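Note to self: keep these together.
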Amino acid sequence: MSTLGELNQEVARCLLCEIAKYRTNTVPGEGAEDAEIMFIGEAPGWHEDQQGRPFVGPAGHYLDQLLASIGLTRRQVFIANVIKCRPPNNRDPLPTEIQNCQKWLDCQIEIIKPRMIATLGRYSMARFFPGKSISKIHGTAVRQDNTIYFAMYHPAAALHQQSLRQAIEADMKKIPAVLAETKSVPEAESGPQQLSMF
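Structure:
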């Protein structure tokens, strides 16, 4: 069994949060163990809870289209969420739930070692861009050590607010250029480095 497979089994046994009582399945994440890009959403929804897979509902179908727009499939990236169980009634994740699940996400990042982490929505954005507003920083990237952090709206935002669709699609199309830029620019010696956007 792969390292991620072993981690998924640990996640399935986790009972740290009250919401563990209500889940059908844990939803640890899926994709390539050596993925260059990791997409991190917020929390599983109803469809994800039923299947134990991330982004398989309407927002997931839209994410698949977004990936296709830059020549990728979900098998080539890794997709996860900040928390691994569906909150009852699809409510927002609680701070304690985010904190309890942080170790699972940390382990995934450590195993995969992605070149880029794309945050989908405000909860994953808050983890890597603390104190920032998604409406102000979406489509921008920062490089910290060996990882690029790229902020995006959650795909579900476009389903609820059609006016955001154009911004989400434009942001996704920046990803190949951001990756290409970082391959041609030496690593920063220390501290976060703002990357130019195209």
